[in-house]
Task: inverse folding
């Protein structure tokens, strides 16, 4: 795990830190080719420079967000973005994380991608790249 991501996690409550540590370690082990860093103040993973998923602390809990998650056809990723193709789930305890679901979503995040890295260049128009 990147040290800056570990620092982000360590600054959370114990319960939130446990959730984030499990998410980060699972993401790192499943998406070994991804680059991870703190981006816009929270951990984000990129595939070929394209933001793919990340998590952040919000009022409702830890939000795990997949930039292209609306296309995954996954009922549990039920917090949908209004403008883009993102979808999310919230966690408040490590016991809520189903690793089978998470690993399936990580596989889909590799297979289903919209081009967010060129969004500004395309003046807000999203194009599917995978």
Result:
């Amino acid at each position: 795990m990147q040290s800056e991501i570990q620092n982000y996690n360590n600054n959370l409550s114990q319960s939130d830190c446990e959730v984030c540590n499990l998410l980060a370690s699972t993401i790192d082990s499943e998406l070994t080719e991804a680059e991870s860093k703190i981006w816009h103040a929270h951990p984000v993973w990129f595939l070929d420079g394209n933001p793919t998923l990340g998590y952040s602390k919000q009022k409702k809990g830890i939000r795990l967000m997949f930039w292209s998650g609306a296309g995954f056809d996954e009922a549990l990723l039920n917090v949908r973005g209004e403008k883009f193709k993102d979808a999310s789930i919230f966690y408040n305890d490590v016991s809520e994380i189903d690793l089978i679901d998470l690993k399936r979503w990580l596989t889909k995040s590799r297979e289903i991608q919209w081009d967010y890295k060129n969004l500004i260049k395309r003046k807000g128009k999203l194009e599917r790249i995978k």
